[in-house]
Amino acid sequence: MKKTIFLSALVAIGMTFTNCSSDDDGNADTIAPTISIQSPDLNQTYSTDQGNFLGPEIAILTAQGVDNVKMETMTLTVLNSDGTVVFEETRSNNDPDNETILTISDGFETTNAGTYNVIFTATDGSGNTETSNPRTFTYED
Hints:
- Helix content is 13%, strand content 45%.
- The protein has 1 helix and 9 strands; from the N terminus they run H-E-E-E-E-E-E-E-E-E.
- The strands form 2 sheets. Strands 2, 4, 5, 7, 8 and 9 form a 6-stranded mixed beta sheet that branches.
- The longest helix is centred in the N-terminal third of the chain and has 19 residues, at 2-20.
């Protein structure tokens, strides 16, 4: 009987130490996505009024996020020269066939002349985030 209790105790201790280890830590995604800005060009200039009732010129803002595992979201944020957010758009990855690449593209227009910055932010499925350097563009009257 003592031998059975001793063996049971050894098995219980062995299982305790085995169950405390975590295999997930070795596979954690710690690499942030990368961002490639396609537009606007650096210091590109747009018109606030194209004449003939056409209104302001539209700035196309486009960037692509790439991750080694899974892209979750891409956000574009436009700030005016005061640093105030004047436009923001977020796109989520809903494409099961292409989970590692996510492109965001949207048009921005304003009748307010001035300097603007667009910042792109990419977030992957593990919460790793990369933020682009500001890309400056200008609207002139």
